[in-house]
Amino acid sequence: MSKGLFLDRDGTLILDKHYLADPAGVELIPGVVDGLRRARSLGYKLFLFTNQSGIGRGLHTLDDVLRVNARMEELLGLPHPLFTDICIAPESSDQPPVYRKPSPRFIVETIARHSLDVTQCWMVGDREGDIQAGLNAKIGAAAVCTGKYDAAGWAALALPGVPVFPSFSEFAATLR
Ligand SMILES: [Mg+2]
């Protein structure tokens, strides 16, 4: 069985620019390259799991999101394919959720499809929806402080059993 990391994009791997549609605006969060390299070297399969409600709201298109993803992968400079699978949830918050976090559907389906060991899977993200998706899928959930919340913000949310890290790289350093 394989180990799996489910990774939020905005605020976790790249700076959250809110409805980013221009690939030129992609900025990696420091330490992400080394963190991803470490996870890969330890045998983790990587899955990108991103809510992109700007599609559902008509603010940008799926093609825009794909171009931003491509630019992110270009900046990361890691061997292809970097992600075993990618889920882009296009629903806005007032549309019926299909894959939109906190739905665990993508994680649950991916665990089955790739025979992942649920005891060695994590969802990592910067918002409550990321954490809740991981918890709903009964895998580990880890919070980072490079997006919506700083450490005090996460502490105020008081999510029991959810470790909080300054950034993805500190999380990745704990992987074995
Ligand atoms: Mg995010």
Descriptive terms for the model:
alpha/beta, 6-stranded parallel beta sheet, binds magnesium ion, 176 residues, Rossmann fold
Explain what you see.
34% of the residues lie in helices and 20% in strands. The protein is built from seven helices and six strands. Helix 6 links the parallel strand 5 (140-144) and strand 6 (164-165). Magnesium ion binds next to loops.
Instruction: Name the CATH superfamily classification.
Output: HAD superfamily/HAD-like
Number of helices: 7
Tell me which ligands are bound. Answer: magnesium ion
Distance between the termini: 15 Å
> What would you report as the Rg, rounded to the nearest angstrom?
15 Å
- Structure class: alpha/beta
- N-to-C series of helices and strands: EHEHHEHEHEHEH
Strand order of the largest sheet: 3-2-1-4-5-6
Portion in beta strands: 15-25%
Helix content: 25-40%
CATH topology: Rossmann fold
Number of domains: 1
Summarize the biggest pleated sheet. 6 strands, parallel
Instruction: Identify the CATH class.
Output: Alpha Beta
Just name the CATH architecture.
3-Layer(aba) Sandwich
> What is the mean pLDDT?
97
